[in-house]
Amino acid sequence: MTQWTRRAIVTALGAMSIVRPHAAAAAAAGATTGAGTGTWPSEPIRIVVPFAPGGSTDAVARLAAPGLQQRLGVPIIVENRSGAAGSIGTDVAAKARPDGHTWLLTFDSHALMPVLVPSLPFDLQKDLVPVTQIGRAPYVLACQPAKPYRDMADVFAAARRGGVSFGSTGNGTIGHLVMLMMAQRSGVELTHLPYRSGGLAVNDAVAGHVDLMIGSAALLAPHVSAGTLRPLMQLGSHRLNAMPAVPTATESGFPGLTAEAWWGVFAPAGVPGPIIDRFQSALIDTYREPRIAQQFTEVNQAELVLGDAPALAEFVQNQIRVWGDVARANHVRPD
Questions:
Q1: Where is the signal peptide (predicted)?
Q2: Which residue spans within 219-259 are E strands per DSSP?
Q3: Residues of CATH 3.40.190.10 domain(s) within the chain?
């Protein structure tokens, strides 16, 4: 697998003609916003999603865009900058001018970037500040209905004969890591096919180009409902209402194993506190709108969290501890 170095990422950023000031210069420029919100927002706000369109992170961002635009009075632009386990887009957000017009909305691999990309061109904890954890959803393992798998016993029996593949939303996502754990515990090998986005992975799973698909319930639930994917196992602590017949990992022979995708919002370091507070408030109010909340929780089978910044910071530290060990033990690197 390709190991992304600082030079590789900087080269990739240059190829996309992204020009951002150095973090120190950005902080100095951001000082002009003062301690209060002033005239903020004074221009369109962009939400950087460090993954390609079509995945759950992109969908979560676009779900909130109209409500944020209504509450803040400026256009909301969702900007997809994918690559290197999310580090290319995260770098764009981390080095943006800290004036409250650029935010990062990212996925669970965020906490694993220091392990996945050893030479990051930014400091995950110093260059970004937490805003809120939007929500979480259990991972689900599914396959095309024409595939011969009905449960995990079928999967592992086929894997012992060789040639079973699974798709994920990328190396180092929790979905990838939990599949590694289950394969090791079962003494089998599974061929991993990482994709740049959940949308691309699901398309290939529905078409039957990959045997299995591991993704968040938010990503897979619409396809399960439509009958284009058959769920085999869910990795929450209990069965989802929309999938009452689908066993949990514990029920499938992996006691205590859970894995949840999550989405969180971060700001470039140096954004004034009052601006962060106002954006956080607008974000939370948007996701609490009945229509938006229903879309997020029922249609996507996800749970809204909408916690405060300290809660997100503590949560990310726990994710680094729990899943970082798995990534290091398996020498996982982004493609």
A1: 1-23
A2: 230-234
A3: 138-252
Distance CA 34, CA 269 (A): 14
The domain 6-18+40-137+261-329 is classified under which CATH number: 2.40.50.1020, 3.40.50.300, 3.90.550.10, 3.40.190.150? 3.40.190.150
Distance CA(28)–CA(184), nearest Å, equals 50
DSSP notation for 138-203:
EEEEEE-TTSS-SSHHHHHHHHHHS--EEEESSTTSHHHHHHHHHHHHHT---EEEE-SSHHHHHH
Q: Give the architecture-level CATH label for domain 138-252.
A: 3-Layer(aba) Sandwich (3.40)
Contact by Cβ (8 Å): 243, 140: yes
Cα–Cα distances (Å) from 245 to 136, 166, 200, 254, in that order, read: 21, 22, 27, 17
Predicted TM-score of the model (pTM):
0.81
Contact 100, 280 (CB under 8 A): no
